[in-house]
Design goal:
The protein is of the alpha+beta class and 336 residues long. It has helices spanning 46-50, 74-88, 111-123, 134-141, 182-197, 203-212, 247-266, 270-279, 293-301, 314-323, 326-335; strands spanning 3-10, 14-19, 23-29, 32-35, 41-45, 60-63, 66-67, 70-71, 98-105, 128-133, 152-157, 162-168, 171-178, 199-200, 223-230, 236-242, 281-284, 305-306. It has a 5-stranded mixed sheet, sandwiched between helices. Strands 13-12-11-17-18 form a 5-stranded mixed sheet, with helices on both faces. Strand 1 and strand 2 form a beta hairpin. Helix 5 (182-197) packs across helix 6 (203-212). The longest helix has 20 residues, at 247-266. The relative contact order is 0.15.
Length: 336
Amino acid sequence: MAKMDIALDLGTSYTSIYVSGYGIVLHEPSVVAFYDKAPRRVRAVGDDAYQMIGKASDKIKIVRPITGGIIKDAEACTAMLSEFLKKILPQSYVFKPKIRAVVGVPTGITVEERKMYEETLMGAGIDEIEMINSVMLAAVGTDNPVRSDYGGFIVSIGGGATEIAVISLCGIVTGCSISIGGDMIDRALADSIQGIHDIKVDSVTVRRIKERIASLIRNDCATMTVNGLNNLTNTITSVEVSGDRLYRSVATYYESIIKSVYKVIKSCSPALAAAIRENGITVVGGAANIPGLDILMSERLGLRVTIPHDAQYAVIAGAGMLLTDPDYLYDVIRHS
């Protein structure tokens, strides 16, 4: 039987898949659209399903199966992942290959949740599964020396949650997870735009605003024109949205993340605190790309802050690295 090794990052906002020998082959929104009849039949997944948000008829049910970093709708997640796997299977395979996967999972998931992940992944067609904490994979993916006695300080800002971890000898020494992520920031932006301009904007528009002009730099002059539904006239209205006027709505959440980072540092031993002081911290995740985050965190914490290029791919990159290095993978699994 043919075999295929993959790495998988099932995120609240995006799902990424890495295939051994090919690299990252899929990075699409974690969204699935169903025909609204029983039994559920898939209409679209990923980018195609995401573009239907706010536009689909009542006959289409759009589902985001992962909330707060955890699978909440196992049936929908299985259906979505099955379709993603079909997309990445090489045309040369006559029959479905045996699939082995390294999968990133949230830190601290329960035994029941771990079992649900396993059942969901196997239901989608994955035969062998190695589950590893996503924040550990992010450390590997950003070339932190996780096998050393000080393996790095990672802040991973995902769509549904932020994970913070101090790593040593392939294990997590201390850290925490807080329910602040990109989705919460999106909602804050939508509320802020409604308060300032008296218009409602859809989630797709909000994400574009966040990606293009949201900033943690005071007096950022970036602007963009958006269309929304006017609350007073109930008509479509165009307004110019300013990054500077949205500053407070996003800065509040990043300040909360920084406070949590500070608390984790305070909980460290003197030796670890000294290592953090010397080496700084690494911030990853899609919501780490906002301009000015490194400056804000560095000012508040008095530390060097590194946000790598393509920070949103840190987890899947780390999983892919382990997939191609069995000894490294064994060390991480053994100490996790």
